[in-house]
Amino acid sequence: MINKSAHELHSLLSSKRVSSLELTEAVFARIDQVEDKVKAYITLTKEEALRQARAADARLKAGNNITPLTGLPVAVKDNMCTQGVLTTCGSKILNNYLPPYDATIVAGLKSAGAVIIGKANMDEFAMGSSTENSALYPTRNPWDLTTVPGGSSGGSAAAVAADEAVLALGSDTGGSIRQPAAFCGVVGMKPTYGRVSRFGLVAFASSLDQIGPLTKDVTDSAILLGAIAGHDEKDATSVDLPVPDYRKALIDDVKKVKIGLISNLLGDGIAPEVKLAVKAAAEALAKLGAEIVEVELPSFEYAVSTYYLLAPAEASSNLARFDGVKYGHRSGGTKDLLNMYYNTRREGFGPEVKRRIMIGTYALSAGYYDAYYLKALKVRTLIKQDFEKALGKCDVLISPTAPTVAFKVGEKTADPLAMYLSDIATIPVNLAGLPALSLPCGFSGGLPIGLQIIGRAFAEETILRVAFTYEQNTKWHTQKAKL
Ligand code: GLN
């Protein structure tokens, strides 16, 4: 039962062949079995989950107010506020933080009748690509426990891949949903900037952050996106556009769809087996009737450098609020305020977060602002224009999600630049605010490879249609990690 998709389980639940309580208990039994190895969660909320499952069963029994999520177990990344439930962001500085409110998307899940299993592990403040920057412990990849699950939403992706949750939510600032989805062989979608409310998501880089689904298949991605998308008056950046029924976009047909294969993401630095798998996916889509053309987006060369000025600049400002006064950890024993700030931040933040705060503060400082921050903003516009040109000619663009399959635990921890390059294909999409999805398109050495599909702003439906067609006509998504 626990390895089924959300839409399969929804029919079992609504026809009363399974109860939400049985399902939720089965997921917790699975967690007991494998969590020691995977470490996907920071906090499990079993009692509350069982209570929510019973409430969902009552709702299913009464037969009204049933949504596609009613009774389904969901994991939530630990940077989304959950009222009264520990929300650490994978950081020591928030090791005791109990939010007084729910993030809008968490409140939405609850009112849809979903069952929240717990809070998923992550790189500290979502800074990282392997979940090794979690202050608690690293998460492991269910396909091979000696490799990383990707990051920063590694806990969410691993939980879905290991059947420790049916669905999960992650956040994506530079690839943190799509890259772990690729590494763990699941489907991950970063919606258009503004499509999903960020109220109650602890901010990393506010002009880039977006919440999105991690799921077992494309249909589940459409369902979960539909449940979280929409305008929120508490988030001024959320857009007031109607939310389509994304399931209607799940059409097994790509005839007349024009797909641009991003040629400069199939060059140096991309592993040969990844290139092969992505080219094979393009051929498969061509056989299904799509028109494939090669496109070049030359400014991508500057995307990683641009991101590593803008994201740290925003982070240095956003993280100023963690000073021991209102939130989380406070250093004891200091007599004056300034040293309390210093010590709290010294003790509370890990090395990668400190590195970002320093880079960001430097990039924003008087005298360097024009040379770095402002210049990066201008390059961001060039990257956007490259996308506009390519997406003016094509309905969607495709590329590898990540340059390699999952790497070994510890392989890149000593070399931040090598780690940053894991996001070479995902970062440009955040800089342009566009939607993109990753889904499995092959294996290398027993590890999954991800295909990235990028669309026009608010055209998640086109992405879903291409992804669904590819999935219906291939078998990659039917393979499971053998733990
Ligand atoms: N890996 C990138 C970083 O470290 C992206 C992280 C994210 O998307 N949250 O910043």
TrEMBL record:
Residues 22-464 form the Amidase domain. It is an enzyme of class 6 (ligase). One of its GO terms (molecular function) is transferase activity. Coiled coil: none annotated. Transmembrane segments: none annotated. SUPFAM superfamilies: Amidase signature (AS) enzymes (SSF75304). One of its GO terms (biological process) is translation. It comes from the Bacteria. GO terms for cellular component: glutamyl-tRNA(Gln) amidotransferase complex. Keywords: ATP-binding, Ligase, Nucleotide-binding, Protein biosynthesis, Transferase. InterPro entries: Amidase, Amidase_CS, Amidase_dom, AS_sf, GatA. Its EC number is 6.3.5.7. Pfam families: Amidase. It catalyses: L-glutamyl-tRNA(Gln) + L-glutamine + ATP + H2O = L-glutaminyl-tRNA(Gln) + L-glutamate + ADP + phosphate + H(+). The active site is at K77 (charge relay system), S152 (charge relay system), S176 (acyl-ester intermediate). Belongs to the amidase family. GatA subfamily. Allows the formation of correctly charged Gln-tRNA(Gln) through the transamidation of misacylated Glu-tRNA(Gln) in organisms which lack glutaminyl-tRNA synthetase. The reaction takes place in the presence of glutamine and ATP through an activated gamma-phospho-Glu-tRNA(Gln). NCBIfam families: gatA. Heterotrimer of A, B and C subunits. This is Glutamyl-tRNA(Gln) amidotransferase subunit A. It comes from candidate division WOR-1 bacterium RIFOXYC12_FULL_54_18.
